[in-house]
Amino acid sequence: MKHPLTISRWTAIATNDQSKDGLFFYGVTTTKIFCKPSCHSKIPNKENIVIFKTTAEALSANFRPCKRCQPTGSTPNRLWIEQIKQYLENNFQHELTLNTIAEDCHGSVSNLQRTFKKNTGISPTNYLVKIRLTHSQELLKNSGYPIKTIANREAAEKL
Ligand SMILES: [Zn+2]
What we know:
By secondary structure, the chain is of the alpha+beta class.
């Protein structure tokens, strides 16, 4: 299974972006070592990078965990959930499917659903509905628009 080295992944690797830890790992084919995005090891050549979504994937491809960033040593689920929540808050006005959420948050659909529900008690789609409802209620309270306008607006936003 191959995952693309997207621009955002490459940027995360090149800038040692800690906020992307847990979302993916990268291996370097010349060393057969894999790292977290935040690892401060030497930035590899783009063409030598392999992307993994889980440490298990990296291990099964015969890559060894980096001693420096210890990609197998932590449990980043809570961090990931925070990132997903933030993503939903920022993007609730767009048409979002489980697929797009999983893709943008660098996880599989099944892992997204399972981990999110386990950590928050509700599914990602229900969480999204809650955000949208809260937003509509605030509009109702604060905007003075008639309910029909807001309903139309919500509908228009989903087009
Ligand atoms: Zn490392």
